[in-house]
Amino acid sequence: VQLQACGGGLVQAGGSLRLSCAASGSIPGDALMAWYRKTPGKQRELVATFTSAGNTYYRDFVRGRFTLSRDTLQNTAYLQMNNLKPEDSGIYYCYLSDTFGQGTQVTVSS
Q1: Which SS3 state, helix, strand or coil, does residue 74 take?
Q2: Cα 6 to chain center, whole Å?
Q3: Tens digit of each residue's pLDDT (9 = 90 or more) over 18-63
Q4: CA of 13: how far to CAs of 1, 47, 48, 89, 100, in Å?
Q5: In whole angstroms, what is the distance from residue 4 CA to residue 24 CA?
Q6: Are strands 104-109 and 9-12 parallel, antiparallel or unpaired?
Q7: Nearest 5°: phi and psi at 37?
Q8: pLDDT at 46
Q9: Helix or strand or coil: residue 86?
Q10: Closest CA to 100 of 42, 47, 29
Q11: Which of 74, 98, 101, 103 would bridge 3 by S-S if both were Cys, CB 3.0 to 4.6 A apart?
């Protein structure tokens, strides 16, 4: 599996960004895409994921602000991030089938 993430950037607090992650290669049929992030001083942590029940799960610190979506025909997932906060700054990684993408930097200024 190869993952290509993009969409990061610099935004002011309260602003929005949309990350995308395109998957290619041999993708297991039951694989579920997720987003992780590495923020300063913390280990990489789960942000949001699709679930096997066909739903989405969000960590408390992003619930209500971030939204997962996907285009199954294009094997692409999106993370819409609204009302961004400085503490959301970090490197965001998409994840699929035991593989992390290269990461995309998100910086939120106060």
Answers
A1: coil
A2: 10
A3: 999 999 998 888 889 999 999 999 999 999 999 998 899 999 999 9
A4: 34, 18, 20, 10, 27
A5: 9
A6: parallel
A7: -145, 155
A8: 98
A9: helix
A10: 47
A11: 101
DSSP state of 28: -
Q: Of 26, 22, 43, 12, nearest to 106 (Cα)? A: 12
CB of 76 closer than 8 Å to CB of 52: no
Residue with tokens 């992390």: 100
Two tokens, residue 110: 């106060």
| pLDDT one-digit tens code per residue, 61-103 | 999 999 999 998 889 999 999 999 999 999 999 999 999 999 9
The pair phi, psi for residue 89, each rounded to 5°, is -60, 140
> Which value, in Å, is the radius of gyration of the alpha carbons in the chain?
13
Scan for tokens 């993430």, then name that residue: 5
Q: Using alpha carbons only, give the angle 42, 101, 81 rounded to the nearest 5 degrees.
A: 65
**In this structure, what token pair is assigned to residue 6?**
């993009």
